[in-house]
Amino acid sequence: MPSTKTEERHDNAKGLDVMHPALALRLLASGQQAAAKSVDAAIEQISAAAALAAQVLSAGGRLAYAGAGSSGLMAMADALELPGTYGIPQEQIIILLAGGAASLADLAGGYEDDMDLARADVRNSGITAGDCLISVSASGSTPYALAAADEAKKRGAKVIAIANNAAAPLFKGADVSILLQTPPEVVSGSTRMGAGTAQKIAFNMFSTLVGIHLGHVLDGHMVNLRADNIKLQGRAMRIVCDITGVSAAEAGRLIKAASGSVKVAILLASGAEDVAAAEAALKSANQNLRRAIEIVSHR
């Protein structure tokens, strides 16, 4: 049986319940900070996972996230952000949270043991060859996460596994394994803390690199965002201004002409004759804005 550091007791947690509140909080903070450092050792694996996911999405496949409990919530948070931040179509994103909507009202633990539920969730989502599933579990042995990964693999999908214990069963058979070897939790076994923090950081890094690979980031700007509220409309305008140097008024005009597409607006400001030409450049550049700018700038 693999070592489960996520269940061990923290060396400095003795007397936690009678500590001065400020001292307890400092200990909790240091636990989170120590857990965050575990991501450094997983850089190459996260990079490989992002490249795999981007390849799948670029080819029209779907990216599925599967998990239970706190780990499932970390996965769901990342998945929900992708359409708005990077304009990835919602139909290309699948969320498999053990217990489904019921878990959003009551994160009951029983769902994580239901392997039949996991297999049914994968089958019902239609995951198949050409898709990619990310399965996450702090222990690396959660039955729901294991069964979801196994079912996806059987159906021909690529599998990325994320766990916080070395030699986790979840890693067996995965195409990419991401080990986030976090230290014992200050509150033993409370993996929503350190392990969850490391997972959140890893997911942030993973999905951002996916966006970069897909050509949806330029000079630190999210150039494929979905500007569906006032704040994001203002951000879209600032992005066009910053990248092209046009005035705010001109940026607004270009975004309107581009039907809200920041990429097309930038290309119009960069020399594209019209919207059709901008869209053709993006298609030729496989949606990579930097390459598309080079295309319209040299015409």
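the 2nd protein, sequnce then structure:
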Amino acid sequence: MFKNLTIYRVGPSWQPTQQEVEEALAKGQFLPCGPSEPLSLGWVPPRGIEHAPLVEVIDGHLHLKLTIESRVLPGSVVKERVDEIAAQIEEQTGRKPGKKALKDLKEQATHELLPLCFKKRSSIRVWIAPEQRLLMIDASSPARCEEVVSLLIKALDGLTLHLVQSAETPAACMAAWLMDGVPPEGFTIDRECELKSEDEMKSVVRYARHALDIEEVRQHLSSGKRPTKLAMSYKDRVSFLLTDTLAIKKIAFLDLVFEGHDKPEKDEQFDADAVIATGELAELIPALIEGLGGEHDFLGSAPKSLDIAELLPPDQDLALVSDDVPPWA
């Protein structure tokens, strides 16, 4: 269900109901690109079923889905059309169009070509854990994440978000784990890594499908290179790639997760996937933040730990109950 996660902290003042979120997102529901529109984006049902709710609540977790549709118009095609029009003008007038005229011709060519372009769609999932006040965006690009955040803040009155940051930098922690071979409890280091120098050369060394507990890696670290990516696993259940910006990429659920589970029926697949994904990642995320020294506290000086129990469904024994938890049922 999730391939990449960027983690945000939700401000304490945002406490709407599920219905309020549904109504707010409905105002920005997805509509396909018009003939002259290069881009369209909006909210769609997470289940992929037409007319289904825009907000799905499963085990206390909220699931949203943003669809982005764009028209594919290569710059080379626009340039070819501009050159063609410019050549016609020169033939008719005996003069080449100037810079301002060429700019106008580019707009004209774009307007002509857009309705003929193929359309490309992509989707971004958003997962909200309201009890812990966390919001996760399944996008690999920081620019895409910022776009989704802007849409959410605009749509949901009172919502504030900031990136979760660890008390210790991921790069420093990954370097320490590689140097001494001791990752945080429950985690193992896998066979992929990227090291980058901090000097003007910006030298990069990449390892793929390669053992990392070797002297060569330690020599690179000693010479000043710092990890920007490191493949890891958590309790032999989830593998992922941790980046120096605290983004979690290449998420994959391992065989152990599915042992003892029957294959769900087609109409139950979404719920089953959601339960597995949020259940496993709800344990991984706070453990990872704890391994990075806890969460950086923007309001105080002490790092803040994430409690695994806070992410569990409210009907489980370990769930924490707080007076300021919004009524998401």
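Confidence is low (pLDDT under 50) at residues 313-329. The first strand starts at residue 6 and ends at 10.
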